[in-house]
Amino acid sequence: MSDATTNRAYPDRPFLAVSAAIIHRGRVLLVRRARAPMHGLFTLPGGVVEAGETLNEALRREVLEETALRIAPIGIAGSRDIIQRDKTDRLERHFVVIAFAARLLDGTDGDPKITLNEELADARWLYPDEIEGLETTEGLSEIITAAFTKAG
Asked: Which residue(s) pair with 89 in the sheet?
């Protein structure tokens, strides 16, 4: 686990993060987290905004780092608070995630090659009706529905 990830445990403030609902050929890209937080859950690619970055810059960087995909944000699809408490009810993690609808910049003729980094265990292009039954982060289906509306 990196120092940055470790330093996010037991925070004294929330961390701002971004995620991307990448819409491609009627499907959305879901990734499964390989480690905490959200280990084993399917969610959208993304991560923490670094100091000096705009939300769009952070979104493009995080998606590129995690999947090797280049994207263009379309617009905000929603937001979520991720608040986790430990066994003693002490605040262990707090993220405010701004979720964006996004489109691919490359590989629009077929499915683009995804190269996962160490934070991810799996990636799948799924139609919205294929998501039911997967273990996902809370509120993911609402974000995906909003992203499809934004993407037209």
From this structure: none
Residue 68 has what DSSP assignment? -
Residue among 91, 84, 12, 78 nearest 46 (CA): 78
Amino acid, res. 83: I
Domain 3-151, second-level architecture:
Alpha-Beta Complex (3.90)
CB atoms within 10 A of CB 29: 24
Q: Where are the domains of the chain?
A: 3-151
- 46 burial (CB, 10 Å; 0-12 / 13-18 / 19+) is buried
pLDDT tens per residue, range 109-130: 677 889 999 999 999 999 999 9
Which stretches within 47-139 are classed as H helix?
55-67
Tens digit of each residue's pLDDT (9 = 90 or more) over 126-152: 999 999 999 999 999 999 999 999 998
Query: Cβ(103)–Cβ(22) under 8 Å?
Result: yes
Model's pTM, two decimal places? Answer: 0.89
Residue 47, judged by CB atoms within 10 A of its CB (0-12, 13-18, 19+), counts as buried
